[in-house]
Amino acid sequence: MEPYELDQPGDNPHDNPHNWQHAIAVKGGKLCRTSTNVSMMWLHLVGGKPDPEKGFFIRINKVYKLTKKARAA
After folding, report:
1. What does the pLDDT read at residue 2?
2. 26 DSSP 8-state letter
3. Backbone phi, then psi, for 18, in 5-degree steps?
4. How buried is 57 (Cβ within 10 angstroms: 0-12 exposed, 13-18 middle, 19+ buried)?
5. Confidence of residue 4 (pLDDT cuts 50, 70, 90)
6. For position 7, what pLDDT does the model report?
7. What's the rounded Cα separation, in Å, for the pair 31 and 25?
8. Which comes out higher in pLDDT, residue 72 or 2?
9. Exposure b/e, 19-49, CB count within 10 A at least 16 = b
10. Can you spell out the DSSP letters for 24-73?
11. What's the Rg (C-alpha) of the chain?
């Protein structure tokens, strides 16, 4: 996957959501980012859906729960 380069000054996640898709991990109640971890409170979830005006995401399409696989004996 290549980083997205802004094509036009008016390009934004509300008008062109496919150019602004992200995957992010949550561990210990923090959004894991490369530079720093961010508290999940910044998702501004209301009823399990993000507030598109305040939140880190406009919408959340899929959620996966990863667990450690048990080691074979």
Report:
1. 59
2. E
3. -65, -25
4. buried
5. low
6. 65
7. 6
8. 72
9. eeeeeeeeeeeebeeeeeeeeeeebeeeeee
10. -EEETTEEE-SS--EEGGGG-EETTEE-TTTSS-S---------PPPPP-
11. 15
Q: Which of 30, 35, 34 is nearest to 56 (CA)?
A: 30
Residue 47 sits at the vertex; the CA angle it makes with 45 and 52, to the nearest 5 degrees, is: 45
Q: Tokens at residue 7, please?
A: 């094509």
What residues are paired with 26 via a beta bridge?
31
Distances (CA, A) of 31 to 2, 17, 28, 49: 22, 20, 9, 16
pLDDT tens digits for range 5-53: 666 767 777 777 776 777 778 888 787 877 777 787 878 888 878 887 8
Question: Taking the model in full, what pTM does it have?
Answer: 0.51
